[in-house]
Each structure stands twice: as structure tokens, then as C-alpha cells.
Request: fold
Amino acid sequence: MSVPGLAIFDLDYTLTKRGTWGRFVWQMVRFKPHLWLPLLFSAGWAQFRYKRGAIPRVRVKQAMMRWCMVGKTKAEMQEQARIFGAAEVPAKLRPGGLRQLEQHRAQGDAIIIVSAAVDIIVSDIAQRLDIEHFLATDMAWDEDQKLMLNFATPNCYGPEKVRRLEAFLAQNPHLKQNHTLITMYSDSYSDLEIMSYSDIGVAVNPSKKLAKNASRHGFEVVNWDY
Reply:
């Protein structure tokens, strides 16, 4: 009798066909043309500085949040996430990813989304996919439940994914004890640490850098567009 496994899915470009953050920001500003130019300049400048190592990656998110999200209530932001999620699931997800989710579910495997995307987006999509557990970049709210510029957790990106997963499994030891084989699905080379941490790494529609290095790390390569 086989022992159930633990299946970990990245979100952006792995389960989804496109990144979530930029499209979520666009949803917030598309009817506010007065914000387009300052938002574009702020995000572009932050991206330029990040690429040159002058600022951490999370500052790019914050540069965009500053213009269209900060100060909005949690209820407002959750409604925006609901609208986004309704359009995303299942129409804008990779068909192969949906089949893989169902296969893991049929096998009795535990499923976790581990993503750098913000928690309100990941939470809504996870709920629509009937996935109980997720780890993401958590937004922070003030005492009036209004969105703050800072985040409640570090950006769930790169090595931080391993730290978050280890902490999560330590808090939920039954998941690791009862699901001994860990499989990680991702499109991005930035997930090399968590893919290597897992027993099985699967490169899904991989970026050029991940595709180039997949065989060296023993990762299977799959196409989920069909």
C-alpha cells in the first residue's frame, strides 16, 4: 500500500498561465487613468533598481501598492481578490496543472501552494481549487483593517520558500509524518532551493534558466498547456 505524498505547487506561471501580481494591479487601476503614469514610473524605477541589486525584490511590489492599494480596507481588497479569482479559476489556469491536482487528490496526497504572490490572491485561488494549505507573502493591516505598505511576512520568494515550508511543517508535523514523499512543481529557477529540498522536483513549462539546469538537478520537465 503506497503512502500518501505531499504535493507543493508554485502559483504564478506554474498553475496560472501568466503572473498574477501585475494583472491584479491593473484590475485596481484600469478605470483610474490618472494613476497610470505615476504607477508606471514608480514600478519601472523600482524594477530598474532591483535588477541592479540596489533594493530587495519586495520593494517592486511596494512601489505598485503605494499608488493603488495602501489605505484600502481589508474588505475592499478581499473583494478585489474575489473578482480576480473568479476570472482566473479555471479559465486562466494550465489544464495540465488542474489534472495534476486531481491526480494528487485522488491519491490522498496533501496539497500546498507556496507562492511569492500576496496572500489575498493566493487564498482566493486556493479556496476555489479546494486546497486547504497555502504559504504566500502576507499583507499587513493596521488597527482599522486598512492596508499598510509593509508586509506582515518576508517576501515568500527563493530561499524564503524553504524557510516558510519548514516552519509550516514544524507547526503541522502530521503532514510530514503522514506524507513522506514531497513533490515540488515550479516554472522558475528562483525555486531551485525548494525544488532541491523536495524529494521530486518537476519543472513546469520552465523558464530558460530552469530548463537549462533541469537535467543537472534531476528534475522532470513537463508541459501543462494541454
User: Anything to note?
Assistant: The mean pLDDT is 96. The beta strands are 6-9, 110-118, 133-137, 139-141, 147-151, 182-186, 200-204, 220-222. DSSP finds ten helices and eight strands in the chain. The longest helix spans residues 36-51.
